[in-house]
Amino acid sequence: MTDTGTGNHLDNVYASKSADEVAKGYDRWAETYDQDMGASGYRHPTICLALISRYIKTDHAAILDAGAGTGLIGEWLRIIGYRELVALDASDGMLEVARRKGVYDELHQGFMGQTLPFDDDRFTGAVSAGVFTLGHVGPEGLDDLLRVVRRGGFIVLTVKDRLLAETDFRQHVDKLCGDGYCRLVEETPSYISIPGEASQSTSRAFVLEVLH
Predict the structure, then answer these.
(1) The pLDDT value given to residue 34
(2) Among 91, 106, 177, 189, which residue's Cβ finds the most Cβ atoms within 10 Å?
(3) What is the mean pLDDT of the chain?
(4) Is residue 1 part of a domain?
(5) DSSP of 156-174
(6) What is the pLDDT of residue 4?
(7) Is 17's pLDDT higher than 70?
(8) Phi and psi angles of residue 98, each rounded to the nearest 5 degrees, phi first
(9) Is the dihedral of CA 51, 100, 33, 105 positive or negative?
(10) Could you tell me the residue range of the domain that residue 141 belongs to?
């Protein structure tokens, strides 16, 4: 198995030591990101799209794409009928590519794990694909997502298995559930997230229902 163009970029962003480094790495990658990830068979957007459509109806749904990147998920959500879509990403370069697609009602530059620039209970749901991974965002990124998604809404996210093994991510989810903020309604089996990438690393997707 050989890399298709993703390898060097992924190595760089995974090795980042700060949120600013991550953003700059994606700025450099933005113009070829869709092509590179498409060629590699990137699976997170498809899996997240299926889970969103399972749990959130298109009628009156306001969806936050947290870590929207170039807007891969936003494009598909718009096609299947979701009408209020908001993008958040750390990379201005990625957001500029997303802006050109014309599928988001709003685009915001910001970092997961910090206070998000949205009111409480703003969204019916949120999706975060490929964000909870090495060198990006840890379990603390969940907390403010729960604030901005209203009661009865759903959060769909992917988590790299190494992050689950090497951090307290699962324990953090268990505590949030135990404290009544959310409940875990679905966890997929592990899957290879980028089949065309040499490491063949695995991830899984979670669906949380917001209870607060």
Answers:
(1) 82
(2) 91
(3) 89
(4) no
(5) EEEEEHHHHHHSSHHHHHH
(6) 43
(7) no
(8) -60, -40
(9) negative
(10) 7-210
Identify whether 2 is part of a domain: no
199 is a domain residue: yes
Alpha-carbon distance of 30 to 28, in angstroms, equals: 6
Burial profile 103-141: b = 16 or more Cβ within 10 angstroms, e = fewer: bbeebbebbbbeebebeeebbbbbbbbbbbbbbbbbbeb
One-letter amino acid at 148 equals V
Q: Please state, in angstroms and rounded to a whole number, the distance separating the CA atoms of residues 117 and 125.
A: 16
Alpha-carbon torsion angle 6, 11, 17, 19, nearest 10:
10
Give me the residue label for tokens 């009928």.
81
pTM of the model: 0.88
What are 151-208's pLDDT values in tens digits? 999 999 999 999 999 999 999 999 999 999 999 999 999 999 988 877 788 999 999 9
Round to whole Å and give the CA distance between 24 and 143: 25
Residue 196: inside a domain: yes
Q: Are 124 and 155 contacting, i.e. CB atoms less than 8 angstroms apart?
A: no
Q: Are 49 and 77 in contact (CB under 8 A)?
A: yes
Supply the Cα-derived Rg of the chain in whole angstroms.
16
Domain count, the chain: 1
